[in-house]
Design a protein that fits this description.
Number of domains: 2
Shape: globular
Low-confidence stretches: 1-10, 234-258
Order of helices and strands: EHHHEEEHEHEHEEHEHE
CATH architecture of the largest domain: 3-Layer(aba) Sandwich
Structural class: alpha+beta
Radius of gyration: 17 Å
Mean pLDDT: 84
CATH class of the largest domain: Alpha Beta
Length: 258
Amino acid sequence: MHSVNPRSDQPVEWSRITERLASAMPSFGVSGYFAKKQALLSDSDIIVIVHDSIEDEPAGFLAASWSKTTEPRFLYIRTLLIAEQWHRSQVIHLIYRRLFENILDDGHDFPPVIVFKTYNPKSFAAMAAFRRVPGATVYPFINGVGNQSVLPHVRAIAAELAPGSPLDEATGVLAGAADGVTDFYATMPLSGTEWIDTHFQRHVTPADRMLACLFTGGQAGAARILRAFGVRRGNAAIVPAVQQADVAAAPRILSASS
C-alpha cells in the first residue's frame, strides 16, 4: 500500500487514471464527466484511488473537499466512481475507510456533516442506512420523519454548493444542479429500496441533483460510523494525499454497492 501527494513533486498520471476509469466503466459517461470536471483533479482536498494489484488498474476513485464558508463545516463528497467489475465488492468500503483514516490522521475531527449531490438512488440508500445511528439525521426526509432543526444548515450547504440552483426543501432536489453532466447515466441506477427509488423517479431529472446530507450525530455517532468502516482513531499513518491500495484479493461483499 502506498500513497503520493498530488500537490508534491511526485507526478500523478491523471490522464492515465481517467482513461483507465473510463475503460473500466463502459456503461457510464466517464470521459465526458472528467472533460466537464477538469478542476476536480486539482482543487479537491482529498483524493482516494483504489487499485487492482494484479492488473494495476484503478478499481475506485473518490474526490472530496471541505466546505469553504459554511459552519459547522461539512465534507463534500464530490464524486465516487467504482469500476464495473468491482461493483458489489468491498472497494467502496475500502475507499471510505482510507478517506476517514486520512481525515483523522491529518488532525481533523470526524466531519459533523457529510454531503453529496447525486442522481443515483444507490448512493442515497447507502447514506440512509446510517439514519439508525443514535443522534444522526439524514436529509432529505424522504419517509417524512426527520430532525427539522438541521434545515437552516441544509440551506447554507445548498447555497455554498449550488448557489444558482433553488433547493426544494421537501424533496431535497437542487434544480439544474447537474452542472452540464446530464448523460453520465444511461438510465437511473435503482437501489432496490422502493421508497427511495420512487422518490428519485418522481422528483429528480438528469439535469437535477439530490442534495444528500448525513448529520453524523456528534462523537457517539462518529464512533459508530467509524466502526462500521473498520476505523479506529490513530490507527493509521496517512498524509493528505492520493491513497492507492491493493485490493485484487479482496473477498466479495454482496451487500456493498457503488
